[in-house]
Amino acid sequence: xxxxxxxxxxxxxxxxxxxxxxxxxxxxxxxxxxxxxxxxxxxxxxxxxxxxxxxxxxxxxxxxxxxxxxxxxxxxxxxxxxxxxxxxxxxxxxxxxxxxxxxxxxxxxxxxxxxxxxxxxxxxxxxxxxxxxxxxxxxxxxxxxxxxxxxxxxxxxxxxxxxxxxxxxxxxxxxxxxxxxxxxxxxxxxxxxxxxxxxxxxxxxxxxxxxxxxxxxxxxxxxxxxxxxxxxxxxxxxxxxxxxxxxxxxxxxxxxxxxxxxxxxxxxxxxxxxxxxxxxxxxxxxxxxxxxxxxxxxxxxxxxxxxxxxxxxxxxxxxxxxxxxxxxxxxxxxxxx
Length: 337
Description:
alpha/beta, Rossmann fold, Dihydrodipicolinate Reductase, domain 2, 2 domains, seven-stranded mixed beta sheet, 13 helices
């Protein structure tokens, strides 16, 4: 267990970053707040006397200063297509662990393909997409697969009752126009964007929902370590209508913690021959839930409770079932079906 309690949070004053900072404070860590806006940093730092360091992805020296003396960096400032590489390179120069909350497939692929060897050589963990879209689905699929060494298919169905996107989510959507991927015949292949909608039988309260295949970060992480002939992720169409409507407002707090009232459900089905293993996870607020998810991963990495260094998927790094149980205080309920 590291004696260093300082954790750099890049993008600390963003919507998800604020939840991460609060989670760190509650667990007894010392956040080093970082980002390019000095006024927003000072206001956030004043809440609890945290240290604030102005930094920009366009200035490598500022990133080096921001991360100096930290045990790890949690990167929360998207779009990750633009920000992941410079922050990751700074983490490598500092030889500190790197975790981010990216949802886009391209930066997750890039982190895994281009930074695995440098991270191994530096003795650090690089863990992209340790977030609602990404790490959570990978942990569920790993737990569902259990002792099966190979499977025919992993299908992830995500249902949201609504989606009030942050400004960062909207900007990411505008930037994330490249190819999306699913796994077919054991390989990452371009997702068939013309694929027809299908129905998914979710447990209550959602029931039967129309879903569409999406290029989710979960797919990239699963492909890193699950021996599956096919992997595909789906999202119900109702929240996509919210996302595509420019009039949909940003998330609104519904309780003292700042969480919104949004409800989510993940339904993972792992198929081998005629057998199906299924796990369902429920919770609230995809942005707020990302904070305990990524901070739990950071704590396990710093405590040495991980399977290795390099670019890592959480399912290949942690005991998936134990990790999911640890998220119960954050409101995650996981049940077999």
